[in-house]
Design a protein that fits this description.
Largest sheet: none
Structural class: mainly alpha
Order of helices and strands: HHHHHHHHHHHHHHH
Number of strands: 0
Number of domains: 3
Distance between the termini: 133 Å
Shape: elongated
CATH class of the largest domain: Mainly Alpha
Strand content: under 5%
CATH architecture of the largest domain: Alpha Horseshoe
Radius of gyration: 35 Å
Helix content: over 70%
Number of helices: 15
CATH topology of the largest domain: Serine Threonine Protein Phosphatase 5, Tetratricopeptide repeat
Length: 336
């Protein structure tokens, strides 16, 4: 016979088993009820409520599967998880439409995570595209407010705009509008390294040639002006760096080719001067070629190529370089 003490131990264990069993049965029912509530909210287009109910149901089902390997819970959990990316996407869109942008982003981040785990690339692409538009909208408002007072730009707010425009590009690397805004901000902050990096990334975007060229020209003009300032202060190393960036983003900026040719001649780097001058002549208009031919003649003469020097000088036919070229040909090079 069981002793009284042992009997009570047995009774406690029996009751515990009974309670756990009933809790498990109740848990699966709770999960089903929550899923039904989620479906009702989904049908009513209350997507944020639907997402919340489905999440709660999944949490219960995951616990049941992990603790008891409940196959019914596993099957139901997989089915609900398959539904979640689209629910999150619809919830994110609804929140964005209502102007609740921060909440929309949080919801779409969940969409990205669940869509990635489910390998639902189409949903993931839509979610990231929507997030890009939201980040761009936020960045645009921040930019407008930061630059409202032309005499006192709010740099903290401008940097937040820069951060959000970068996030917009991260979510959609083909967003031309996001690149345009980011470049505009970097021109204000004068961050040349980030500007160059951004425009190089822009060049990898397929198509949209006209838009890409427009943005690239903005960067090219900035680097030309920086190169010109450096040249005027005889900081030739910095000038060369900036002018090369100018040409990288606009192959037809012949002013940059001329300044580089001038600088290389000033540094007695004759071969570099010859190479850059000849490259510039491919793009220079005929009525503006005199300046490049003059510098080219100087470089050729310094390398000892008298014939090439005379040929280059002979093509300087008008403008302020004409008399100087004639002098070089007659008095210095002594062309035939």
């Amino acid at each position: 016979m069981l002793k009284i003490k042992d009997y009570f131990k047995f009774l406690v264990v029996l009751v515990a088993v009974f309670v756990v069993s009933n809790l498990a049965a109740q848990d699966i029912d709770d999960a089903k009820n929550l899923a039904r509530e989620g479906k009702t909210a989904l049908d009513a287009e209350q997507f944020d409520v639907a997402a919340l109910k489905m999440e709660e149901s999944i949490d219960i089902l995951e616990d049941l599967w992990e603790e008891e390997e409940d196959e019914e819970a596993e099957a139901m959990m997989k089915k609900l998880k398959q539904m979640m990316p689209n629910i999150y996407l619809k919830a994110g869109l609804a929140l964005a439409t209502q102007g609740e942008l921060d909440e929309a982003i949080k919801t779409l981040e969940k969409c990205n995570s669940s869509a990635s785990s489910m390998n639902m690339t189409d949903v993931l692409s839509k979610s990231q595209g929507l997030m890009s538009k939201i980040y761009l909208s936020i960045a645009g408002d921040q930019y407008t407010n930061a630059t409202a007072d032309e005499s006192n730009t709010d740099m903290d707010l401008l940097n937040k705009s820069l951060e959000n425009s970068s996030k917009a590009i991260e979510m959609d690397p083909a967003s031309i509008d996001a690149y345009r805004l980011k470049v505009g901000i970097l021109l204000i902050t004068e961050d040349g390294a980030a500007l160059a990096e951004t425009v190089r990334a822009l060049q990898t975007v397929n198509g949209k040639t006209a838009e890409k060229n427009e943005i690239s020209l903005m960067a090219s003009t900035y680097f030309y002006n920086e190169g010109l300032k450096a040249k005027q202060s005889t900081n030739y190393e910095a000038a060369i760096e900036k002018l090369n960036l100018c040409i990288e983003f606009d192959k037809q900026n012949t002013d940059a080719y001329y300044l580089l040719t001038f600088i290389f001649n000033a540094q007695s780097e004759w071969e570099k001067a010859i190479a850059i001058a000849n490259e510039g002549l491919l793009y220079e208009k005929p009525d503006k070629q005199d300046r490049l031919y003059f510098e080219l003649g100087t470089a050729y003469y310094k390398t000892g190529d008298k014939s090439a020097a005379c040929d280059a000088y002979s093509k300087v036919v008008s403008g302020k370089f004409s008399d100087r070229a004639k002098y070089e040909m007659k008095e210095v090079v002594k062309c035939d």
